[in-house]
Amino acid sequence: MELQAIAAHSNADHIGEHRLTNAIASKQIKNTEGHSKPSRSAFEAMISKELASFLRLAKRLAFPDEARAEDFVQDAIIKAYVGFQNGDLKLTPQTGAWIRKSIYLNFLMHRRSEKRVRYVAPELLESAKTVQPELHANQLSNDILAALEKISDEHREVIILIDLEGIEYAEAAEILSIPIGTIRSRLNRARWNMANLLRNSYGSNP
Amino acid sequence: MTTPVHTEPCHHVKHYVEGVAGGKRTRWWNILGWLHVRHCPKCQEALALLQSYLKSAADMRQEASEDVSGLLSRMSDAMTEVDQNSPSPF
Q: Which domains, from first to last, does chain A contain?
């Protein structure tokens, strides 16, 4: 009887251990298959395809500070990669939009902090602006960049996103967190401003 | 000191001019807008200005892409660092 009890207990232990082993194994399978560490190469392939457009967007937002633009891109991509590894972010056609929004948010945070720096220590800002601006072979492109400096921040953002980067209205609305109707009206006003600022570049007969 | 010139089309055809400049097809009911622009020098100038801007913006979009080789290698290093610092899933 006692032996039977011991055998039963031993059997129960064995079953318990077996269940535990199964649970660990299934967790491992889940980790390696279901919520597995996603493949880095897939992420890198997506990034290398879109990196040029990310960098161009950041450079236009951060103009003329090119080094800062690279920081915005790197920070946004690393955040995306961490999210991708944790399973919070999936590789979909919207991943690029997510990264563009992240680049824009980085730029926004930088611009806010720069405004504070300007108030506290203007000499710091002057030293930061010694970076040479990006020069385009096309004179008109340089004029466009110069005109962008003269319009308001909210107009500049829609011009960069839609006219210079070719981003869809819906994605631009998502990036800027404003309704699509506001995007349209803001873009129209911004375009008239830009066209008038560039009047001299087009000559007397545009 | 001179005030900078700001050209915009007449208010009632503004939407029409913006559409035409953006390459939107005109419809038969836009005939009034078309007739107005045809006879209004201010609207003609505004239309030409906006078309020139949109064309130059489109040209700028087509310009040579950025050189990203340096950034790509730095990104790769940063991702390796993330891989090394991330905890094991087991």
A: 24-133 (no CATH), 135-206 (1.10.10.10)
HEC profile of B45-63:
HHHHHHHHHHHHHHHHHHC
Q: Which residues contact A48 (CB under 8 A, 6 or more apart)?
A: B68, B72
DSSP string for residues in A65-87: -HHHHHHHHHHHHHHHHHHHHHT
**A–B CB contacts, 8 A cutoff, strictly below:** 115
Burial bucket for residue B78 (CB in 10 Å: 0-12, 13-18, 19+): middle
In a domain, B29, yes or no: yes
CB-based contact (8 Å) between B74 and chain A? Answer: yes
Q: Is residue B34 part of a domain?
A: yes
Q: Is the pLDDT of residue A171 over 60?
A: yes
- What is the count of structural domains for chain B? 1
Residue of B49, B66, B72 with shortest CB distance to A196:
B49
Q: Give a yes or no: residue B32 inside a domain.
A: yes
ipTM above 0.95, yes or no: no
Asked if B55 is an interface residue toward chain A (Cβ–Cβ < 8 A), one would say: no
> Alpha-carbon distance B84 to B90, whole Å?
15
Rounded to whole angstroms, the Cα distance separating B32 from B39 reads 11
What residues make up the domain containing B38?
A: 7-60
For B50-61, write each residue's pLDDT tens digit. 999 999 988 888
- Count of Cβ atoms closer than 10 Å to residue B73 Cβ: 10
